[in-house]
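Much of what follows relies on a compact textual record of a protein's fold. With that in mind, consider the following protein and its fold in token form.
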Amino acid sequence: MIKVLECTRVLTCLSLSLTSVCLADDTLLWKIQKTLAGKKCIDLTHEFAPGIPRWPGFPDETRKTIYWYDKRADTMGSGFFSELFTHVGQWGTHVDPPAHLVKGLRTVDQIDPKRNGPAARGD
């Protein structure tokens, strides 16, 4: 499902990506915010839930309640609600680093954020 989001949410994501590039010029971030504020932003991500579209070789996501408000035999404890989510790393909207397909290449944490280009727009 495609959801229309406020541009401020997209700006937050964009700002995080550009922070290392833009720290020296704070006015650049304000220019970006001004440009994005008047735009319609579309979120193409899938909601995190069982049944999400995925490669058929991966198992479906599972969820288990591990803490519940009241004491229960099937949980680790009580006092609040918490779940354990289990899924493969390539789940939902994500980035495939070069190491995903070729042993020895860079993983996500080894990719310099400055190498990321601007977001793509498709009509």
About this structure: Residues 42 and 123 are 11 Å apart (CA to CA).
